[in-house]
Amino acid sequence: MSEKKMTSSRRHHLKSVILQIALNWLEQEKKDVAEQKEAYMAENCPTPDLSGDQAALMELCRKLHAAIDKIDEERYDAEAKVQKANKEIEDLNIKVVDLRGVKKPALKKVRMSADSMLQALLGSKHKVTMDLRSNLKQVKKEVKEEPTEAVGDWRKNIEDKADRKKMFETS
Fold first, then answer.
1. DSSP secondary-structure letter at 150?
2. Which phi and psi angles does 22 have, rounded to 5°?
3. Can you tell me the distance from the alpha carbon of 156 to that of 170, in angstroms, rounded to the nearest whole number?
4. Distance CA 98, CA 105 (A)
5. For 65-79, what is each residue's pLDDT tens digit?
6. Averaged over 30-54, what is the pLDDT?
7. What is the model's pTM?
8. CA 169 to mean position of chain CA atoms
C-alpha cells in the first residue's frame, strides 16, 4: 500500500475550508439561540398593559415581583444542581486518574558535570565552581612524640615478665 502524503498547500487549504464551515455553524447557532430567546420571551413574557389607575399598576407590580421571586428560586435550585453535578464529575475524574495511575516518562541519562549543571541552573551571570577540594580546610598533622623510654629492648620486657611469673608461682 503506497500512501501519498498530502502537500502542505493542500493541507492548509483543507484546514481553512474546515475552519470556515465551523465559523458558519457557530454564526448560525448564535442566530438560532437569539430566535429561541425571542420566541420564549414573546410566549412567556407578554408586554404588560400599563393603562389603568394606580391600584391596577400596583397589583401588576406585585405580580411581577412574585414572578421574579419564583424565577430566582428556580435559578438558585438549578445552580445548586449544576454545582453538585460538577463536583461529582470532578470526583469521578480524580478516581479515574487514581485508577489509571500516572505514567512517569522514562528519564534520559545526561552526562553533565556539576559546574555545567550549576551554570545551566543559575545562568551565565553567576560564576560558581564545584571544585570542592579547593574549599576544604587545610589541616596540618602534628607529629606527637611518644616517650621513647617505654619502648625498649623487647627481650628485657619478656625477662621482667618472666620474673613476675616466678614471683606468683613461688607464693
1. S
2. -65, -40
3. 21
4. 17
5. 999 999 999 999 999
6. 87
7. 0.35
8. 85
